């Protein structure tokens, strides 16, 4: 609407032509537009492909991996890379490549579960805070600020040391550092979406609180939520790796990249690949998720819509 | 005709940093069954706030209904909480609203059919298939071409006029007793505006629904409404049938408004000055600073109640009521 009036007011003939062209444009297919903007940057495309490949790797680990994750070759302990063990073996004679392949399962599942858990909890609290406003909102948001002031690694270390070690413990330990971010994000979104006429219209049609919150407000907060979730995948994977590296994460002998970094670190001078390879795997995966998140933000942010920034 | 809605002494305040704004000040009016009334006044005079107060949709804080009663079908609506079950059942079920901005009044994340269906399932508790059937039927009644297909469209796929048709249809879904059209056609261009007014007129006549048309354009309401309430600075300052007001406007503000209706070949006469600030208003007549009839006594006496003139005609202009001038 504004662009139309702008071009009418614009001096000269240019403005008039713009109007005609705008009217002649075929209606934009939202999905096609999304795909176009999303893949416009090469780095996003690369990130997306890597994520897809790693997901495929995790699913088909049994097929792809040359050895099992716990399979020991005691004749070849700490072996250098060769044709059987492409990346060599660790101190217990396990094939490093296979363990990295299996390790993607832990990284992805911990990442996904953590993100879903923290997003669900954070969104719910943020939604209630933003909708309620007043005292309830103040209390929730100040507590959120307090949570965010605690260094996340220390917080997850404390929580992880209290809880049982294992996937669930790690997930909770990491999620607890992530969910305040969602509260803040969704609270802000709700405050702005709430101002929209359709929320008032929904209320005027007799919708009660819950319906207004979950049907009218929440779906219109989804874009930034999806971006945040993708970005937080990287953070969650990194945190899990940190916990595993510090020995409070996934229990050995399960193949987890962070733990593998730690195991390999004792042999850093002799077989640097033992630490570097899982480290690289973490880096590539986190980087890819961040790129995908970046692309999603570009494609979903209405403010950037129609612009052709690179 | 049976009395449907009686609003008496309704007062709504907003707390702001600069003071308390009395957006609606001691407003009383009534609506009969099947009646079409107009609520006219310039921007910021409290038309919308008064209607939102009736529906208890005033955002609180900062707004608050501080006095008055709203009696609808024999029940006092202000007794119910804003979010109470009773109020939710009335909103959309017994009284519904059509808002000004068709472009933003529909949820962009839901299809037309689902939005309409939600209203039906909420109020009538019917299943989804039947809700869809009724929604599509309503869409065809409000003149949406190919309603079966359009029902699955998202709001952004419809034009402004179409969306407002959808809004009108949605407001009629549960066959309410009263519809409040809050500047429902203001945002549309003149031809579409006329079509929509005709449509609303047809619909409310068909279902014998009362209609409150909130507008700043007297010309628009003249053709359709039975009675008009003129609001100024939070108060109803004159009220009467269209004929009475047009033939014999008592309040100088009503006169001014009538001269502001564009007619071909006639010069528009603007009302000089600005509406007053609603913070800490003195009890004198709110139109005083702009009034061309004002007398000394107007500065001293509080503004009179709506006083009966003749027939359905009521006014608050003391000068005219007391015959202080023969102007």
From TrEMBL, chain A:
SUPFAM superfamilies: MetI-like (SSF161098)
Annotated compartments: Cell membrane
TM spans (from-to): 43-65, 106-131, 143-162, 168-186, 243-261, 273-292
Alphabetical GO biological process terms: transmembrane transport
Boundaries of every ABC transmembrane type-1 domain copy: 104-293
Record key words, sorted: Cell membrane, Membrane, Transmembrane, Transmembrane helix, Transport
Transport among keywords: yes
One of the record's GO cellular component terms: plasma membrane
Record's bilayer topology term: Multi-pass membrane protein
Pfam families, per the entry: BPD_transp_1, OppC_N
UniProt similarity note: Belongs to the binding-protein-dependent transport system permease family.
PANTHER family found in the cross-reference section: D,D-DIPEPTIDE TRANSPORT SYSTEM PERMEASE PROTEIN DDPC-RELATED, OLIGOPEPTIDE TRANSPORT SYSTEM PERMEASE PROTEIN APPC
Protein name: Peptide/nickel transport system permease protein
TrEMBL record, chain B:
Keyword Cell membrane: yes
Record membrane topology: Peripheral membrane protein
Keywords, in A-Z order: ATP-binding, Cell membrane, Membrane, Nucleotide-binding, Transport
UniProt KW Glycoprotein keyword: no
GO terms for cellular component: plasma membrane
Coiled-coil zones: none
Domain ABC transporter residue range list: 5-258
Any GO molecular function: ATP binding
Pfam families, A to Z: ABC_tran, oligo_HPY
SMART domains: AAA (SM00382)
GO biological process: peptide transport
Chief localisation class: membrane
Compartment(s) of residence: Cell membrane
Lineage top rank: taxon: Bacteria
Family statement drawn from the similarity comment of this UniProt entry: Belongs to the ABC transporter superfamily.
Protein name per the record: Oligopeptide transport system ATP-binding protein
Species, as recorded: Sporobacter termitidis DSM 10068
């Amino acid at each position: 609407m504004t662009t139309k009036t702008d071009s009418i007011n614009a001096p000269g003939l240019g403005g008039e032509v713009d109007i005609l062209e705008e009217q002649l444009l075929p209606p934009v297919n939202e999905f096609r537009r999304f795909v176009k903007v999303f893949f416009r940057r090469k780095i996003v495309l690369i990130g997306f492909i890597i994520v897809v490949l790693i997901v495929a790797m995790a699913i088909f680990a049994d097929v792809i991996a040359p050895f099992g994750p716990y399979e020991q070759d005691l004749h070849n302990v700490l072996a250098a890379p060769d044709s059987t063990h492409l990346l060599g073996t660790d101190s217990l004679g396990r094939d490093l490549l296979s363990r990295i392949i299996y390790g993607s399962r832990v990284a992805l599942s911990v990442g996904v579960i953590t993100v879903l858990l923290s997003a669900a909890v954070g969104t719910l609290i943020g939604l209630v805070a933003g909708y309620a406003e007043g005292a309830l909102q103040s209390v929730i948001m100040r507590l959120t600020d307090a949570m965010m002031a605690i260094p996340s690694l220390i917080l997850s270390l404390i929580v992880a040391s209290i809880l049982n070690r294992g996937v669930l413990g790690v997930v909770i330990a990491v999620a607890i550092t992530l969910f305040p971010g969602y509260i803040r994000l969704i609270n802000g979104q709700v405050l702005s979406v709430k101002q929209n006429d359709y929320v008032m219209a929904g209320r005027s049609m007799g919708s009660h609180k819950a319906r207004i919150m979950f049907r009218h407000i929440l779906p219109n907060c989804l874009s930034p939520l999806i971006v945040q979730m993708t970005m937080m995948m990287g953070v969650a994977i990194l945190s899990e790796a940190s916990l595993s590296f510090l020995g409070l994460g996934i229990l050995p002998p399960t193949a987890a990249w962070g733990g593998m970094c730690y195991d390999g670190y004792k042999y850093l001078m002799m077989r640097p690949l033992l630490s570097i390879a899982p480290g690289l795997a973490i880096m590539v995966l986190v980087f890819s998720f961040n790129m995908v998140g970046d692309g999603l933000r570009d494609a979903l942010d209405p403010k950037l819509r129609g612009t052709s920034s690179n | 005709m049976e009395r449907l809605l009686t609003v008496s002494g309704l007062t709504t305040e907003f707390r702001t940093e600069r003071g308390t704004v009395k957006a609606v000040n001691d407003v009383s009016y009534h609506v009969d069954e099947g009646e079409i009334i107009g609520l006219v006044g310039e921007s910021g005079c409290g038309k919308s706030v008064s209607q939102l107060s009736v529906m208890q949709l005033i955002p609180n804080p900062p707004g608050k209904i501080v006095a008055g009663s709203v009696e609808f079908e024999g029940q006092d609506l202000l007794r119910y909480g804003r979010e109470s079950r009773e109020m939710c059942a009335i909103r959309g079920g017994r009284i519904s609203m059509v808002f000004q901005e068709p472009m933003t009044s529909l949820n962009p994340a839901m299809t037309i059919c689902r939005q309409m269906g939600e209203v039906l399932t909420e109020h009538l508790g019917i299943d989804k298939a039947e809700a869809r059937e009724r929604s599509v039927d309503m869409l065809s009644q409000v003149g949406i071409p190919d309603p079966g297909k359009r029902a699955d469209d998202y709001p952004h796929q419809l034009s402004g006029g179409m969306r407002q048709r959808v809004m009108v249809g949605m407001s009629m879904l549960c066959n309410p007793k009263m519809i409040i059209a809050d500047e429902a056609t203001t945002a549309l261009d003149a031809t579409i505006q006329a079509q929509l007014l005709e449509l609303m007129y047809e619909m409310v006549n068909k279902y014998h629904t009362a209609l409150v048309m909130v507008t700043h354009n007297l010309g628009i309401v003249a053709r359709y409404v039975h009675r008009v309430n003129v609001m100024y600075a939070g108060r109803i300052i004159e009220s009467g049938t269209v004929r009475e007001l047009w033939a014999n406007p008592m309040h100088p503000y009503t006169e001014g408004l009538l001269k502001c209706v564009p007619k071909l070949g006639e010069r528009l006469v603007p009302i000089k000055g600005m509406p007053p600030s609603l913070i800490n208003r003195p009890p004198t007549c709110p139109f005083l600073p702009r009034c061309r009839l004002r007398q000394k006594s107007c500065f001293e006496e509080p503004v009179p109640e709506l006083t009966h003139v003749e027939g359905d005609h009521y006014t608050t202009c003391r000068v005219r009521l007391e015959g202080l001038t023969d102007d």
